[in-house]
Every structure is written in structure tokens, then in C-alpha cells.
Write a structure and sequence with these properties.
Blueprint: E1 3-5, E2 12-14, E3 16-19, H1 32-44, E4 49-51, H2 59-66, E5 75-80, H3 95-109, E6 114-119, H4 128-140, E7 144-150, H5 154-167, E8 172-178, H6 190-197, E9 200-204, E10 216-217, E11 220-221, H7 226-229, H8 234-237, H9 242-258, H10 262-270, E12 277-281, H11 285-292, H12 301-304
Parallel strand pairs: 3-4, 3-12, 4-5, 5-6, 6-7, 7-8, 8-9, 9-12
Antiparallel strand pairs: 1-2, 10-11
Helix pairs in contact: 1-2, 2-3, 4-5, 9-10
Length: 315
């Protein structure tokens, strides 16, 4: 698996990052034994980046145990900001919450430092100056190596970068956002900003919660997808709609022409885009094998792009 420099930082991550939101997730995740096996198989395949979050339930603790004896092989990326309790200091990006939740993440991950610490969601109730300064303190204390952001609007991301520059504080080296053949809104402003500011881009939900696996069709859906295993959410509505079904059908047809599975085609397409690393979220050995096989898929140029960069069949 190819290693890529994350933006202008000195950190190198593999082109596929192992997402761990499903680890220990009741109802639609996998148990700890399976999660541990998936981590080890991913590392054996040449991957080096694990993505988790304090808001993913048992995920951080499971990752910490799975990575015993392997810490130096791995870039550990975790996130903060989602609610982890009911109190006012158990969510968001205030200094008090950042300091507390970082210590808790370090304990659960069984490590003395986090390689990439990411703001998970925007917290407009807290000044960005406070957030940036708190993250800088963690970097200076050696508890965090690099900082990144996730799910910020372009103007908020640029504002945070400008504050870092003004304060001489640690700068976001990466941005993590939803990006797939159905949801491509980041192409409007974020991609140009990411290029101009020298950030690495980490994409999440490359298979659109299973919409791009060929298992979800109009009127029916497989229970072997995230969409089929949980109650429908506002996030699902972004992909499970008429446009989403049209793209899913096009991807399935194109995959048959290329000679791969729809999921492999959707992941291979990510490799043609300005994506540093794509987060793959798997629950089974078969899903991991299918995702990793995308590394061997080559999309013919006529299918990879048309004017505007769209998959040629995804009209």
C-alpha cells in the first residue's frame, strides 16, 4: 500500500486508512475479536493509519488493546468534539473539554501521544482562538504530534488556519470530510482551499454507507450495509435519494465493464482524485478483502473522468 505525505507535514499515511467506528458498536458493528483481527490484517497488508474518535463508544479502547506491541507501526488518528456525556464540558471544542478528552483518549488508546488529533465537528459556541490555542498546548506538551479538522465549512476552516498563523500556533495539517461519487460538495470550495493551504485530505464514507456496494437498490436493500442495519438518519438522506440511486446503478454497470465489484470501483475512483487517504470502514474479513482488492483496480481514463471530473457513467 502506497504511503503518502499528509499535506506539507512530515507525517506519512497509507492510501487507505482503517476506520474503526464499527468496532464494538452495538447492533451494526463487530465484536472485539473480529476488530482485532481486522486491525492486524490491515497492518499486514501495508496499511499504517487507524482512525477512531472519542465519540465512537468502545472503539478507542479496542484499538488500544489491538495495537499492543505494534504502536510504532501505526499512525493513530482520533477525534474530539462529539458528545461523550451530558455535561456542558463533555462536548465541543472548549479548552476544558479538549484537555479532559485528550487525556481520556490517551488512556483508552494506551499510548503517550496521539499522532493526529482532529476536531470532529464545528463548535460555533467556542471561539476558534480558544480551540487553536488549546490544541497548540497539547502539541507543545508532546501529547499530540499533529492536529487536523473534520467537517468544517470552508470559511471556518480558513478562519482557523488564519488564527493559527496569527498566533504562531500549531496549524491543521489535514482536513477530513465526506466524499464519494454521490456526495461531492467538497469540490465546490474545499478542494481549492486544501490545495492552496497545503493540507492533506482524508475522505470518509467512500461507499456512501453501502449505497455504492451494489447491495442497495430502489425498493430493497441488503442488511449487510450500514443503511440496512440501523434506523434511517439525516446523514443517510444525503445518499439514499433519487440522485444516489442513479449513481449507484451507474457504478454497478461500470464495475461490470471494468471487471470488479462496485465497492472496488468506488474506492479505486478515490485514488484518481486529490485524496491523500481514504477511510475504509469494515466489519468482516470479506469486506476488508474486497476493499483492499480495490488497490489492484485501474479505471480506464475514459471512465475515470469527463469534464468536471465526474465518473463518466455517473450522470
Amino acid at each position: 500500500m502506497e504511503l503518502r505525505r499528509l499535506g506539507r507535514s512530515g507525517l506519512y499515511v497509507s492510501e487507505f486508512t482503517l476506520g474503526t467506528m464499527t468496532f464494538g458498536m452495538e447492533g451494526w458493528g463487530c465484536d472485539e475479536d473480529t476488530a482485532t483481527r481486522l486491525v492486524h490484517r490491515y497492518l499486514d497488508a501495508g496499511g499504517n493509519a487507524i482512525d477512531t474518535a472519542d465519540g465512537y463508544g468502545a472503539s478507542e479502547a479496542i484499538c488500544g488493546r489491538a495495537l499492543k506491541g505494534k504502536r510504532d507501526q501505526v499512525v493513530i488518528a482520533t477525534k474530539f468534539g462529539m458528545p461523550v456525556g451530558r455535561g456542558p464540558h463533555e462536548r465541543g471544542s472548549s479548552r476544558i473539554h479538549i484537555m479532559r478528552t485528550c487525556e481520556n483518549s490517551l488512556r483508552r488508546l494506551q499510548t503517550d501521544h496521539i499522532d493526529l488529533y482532529q476536531l470532529h465537528v464545528d463548535d460555533t459556541a467556542t471561539l476558534l482562538e480558544e480551540t487553536v490555542a488549546a490544541l497548540d498546548d497539547l502539541v507543545r506538551a508532546g501529547k499530540v504530534r499533529y492536529v487536523g479538522a473534520s467537517n468544517l465549512r470552508a470559511y471556518r476552516l480558513m478562519k482557523a488556519l488564519a488564527i493559527s498563523d496569527r498566533l504562531g500556533a500549531a496549524r491543521f495539517v489535514s482536513f477530513q470530510g465526506q466524499y464519494n461519487l454521490i456526495v461531492r460538495t467538497l469540490e465546490r470550495e474545499h478542494f481549492q482551499l486544501i490545495e492552496d493551504e497545503g493540507l492533506g485530505f482524508i475522505s470518509w464514507s467512500p461507499l456512501a454507507a453501502g449505497m455504492l456496494t451494489g447491495k442497495v437498490m430502489r425498493g430493497s436493500e441488503s442488511t449487510d450495509t450500514r443503511l440496512g442495519q440501523r434506523a434511517e438518519t439525516a446523514f443517510d438522506a444525503l445518499v439514499k435519494n433519487e440522485h444516489g440511486f442513479e449513481v449507484a446503478v451507474a457504478v454497478t454497470k461500470a464495475a461490470a465493464d471494468v471487471g470488479c465489484t462496485p465497492a472496488q470501483l468506488a474506492l479505486a475512483w478515490q485514488r484518481t482524485r486529490p485524496v491523500t487517504s481514504t477511510i475504509i470502514g469494515v466489519r468482516t474479513d470479506a469486506q476488508l478483502d474486497d476493499n483492499l482488492a480495490a488497490l489492484q483496480v485501474t479505471i480506464p481514463p475514459r471512465r475515470a473522468q469527463r469534464p468536471g471530473g465526474r465518473l463518466a457513467t455517473a450522470r
